[in-house]
Automatic annotation (TrEMBL):
Span of domain General stress protein FMN-binding split barrel: 18-172
Domain of life (superkingdom): Eukaryota
Protein name: General stress protein FMN-binding split barrel domain-containing protein
Coiled coil: none
InterPro entries: Split_barrel_FMN-bd (IPR012349), Stress-Dev_Protein (IPR052917), YdaG_split_barrel_FMN-bd (IPR038725)
Length: 198
C-alpha cells in the first residue's frame, strides 16, 4: 500500500537507471545521516561521511569504536541512512539496512584518508594516534534492505509551478519520482553479473 504522493509520482525505470541516478545524487552530498537504535529503543542520528559504496551497493563508513554507535549497532543491527537535497532541488534518499562492523586493518587502510585523523585525537599512548593502525578505527558496513529515492525531475521553477497548479486543481504535485529498490533486487542482479552502472 502506498500513499497518494508515492502512487502519483512512482515510476518503474530499470534497476541500472535507478542506481545510476542514486549514485549521482549521493555524489552531490558531503554526508548522510546514520540512524541507530539504542538499547531502550530510542533513535539516534548523526552525520557520517560515506567512505565507500561498493559495486554491489554496500555502504562503508570509518568510525570510532569507542562511540555510542558501536554499542548501538552491537545491540541492534537495524540502521537507516538518509540524505536531504531538497533545498538544492536535488531530491532525497532513505536507506534501510543492517549494519556489521569490521576491524580488519587492511580494509581500514583501504578506506583511510588523512582527514580522518581530525576526528581521532592522538591520545599520546603510541597506539591511539589517529593513524590507520589506531585500534579505534572500525569499518561499519551497511547492507541494503530497501532504498527509497526521490529523484528530482523538475527544475526549481518547474517544481514551484507544479505545486501551485496542484494546489489550485486539488491534484498531487509530482516534481519528481519516488523510486524503490530492494536489497533482493540488488543481490539478484549482482549474482547474475547484471549489476552494471555506466
Amino acid at each position: 500500500m502506498s500513499d497518494q504522493y508515492t502512487a502519483a509520482s512512482g515510476t518503474s525505470p530499470s534497476l541500472t537507471e535507478k542506481l545510476t541516478t542514486l549514485r549521482e545524487f549521493l555524489n552531490t552530498q558531503k554526508s548522510v545521516m546514520l540512524v541507530t537504535v539504542s538499547e531502550d529503543g530510542s533513535l539516534h542520528a548523526r552525520t557520517m561521511a560515506i567512505s565507500e559504496i561498493t559495486k554491489d551497493w554496500k555502504f562503508r563508513f570509518v568510525y570510532d569504536n569507542e562511540s555510542h554507535k558501536d554499542a548501538e549497532v552491537k545491540n541492534d543491527s537495524h540502521v537507516n541512512l538518509n540524505a536531504d537535497g531538497m533545498t538544492q532541488n536535488k531530491g532525497w534518499v532513505s536507506i534501510a539496512g543492517k549494519a556489521t562492523r569490521s576491524t580488519d586493518r587492511e580494509l581500514v587502510k583501504h578506506l583511510y584518508t588523512p582527514t580522518l585523523k581530525a576526528w581521532f585525537a592522538d591520545k599520546g599512548d603510541g597506539v591511539r594516534d589517529g593513524s590507520p593502525n589506531d585500534p579505534r578505527l572500525t569499518v561499519l558496513e551497511v547492507k541494503v534492505d530497501e532504498i527509497r529515492h526521490f529523484h528530482q525531475v523538475k527544475t526549481t521553477l518547474g517544481t514551484i509551478t507544479d505545486v501551485v497548479a496542484s494546489t489550485i486543481t486539488g491534484s498531487t504535485a509530482t516534481p519528481g519520482e519516488v523510486r524503490t529498490i530492494t536489497g533482493e533486487e540488488i543481490a539478484s542482479a549482482w549474482s547474475k553479473g547484471e549489476l552494471k552502472e555506466p
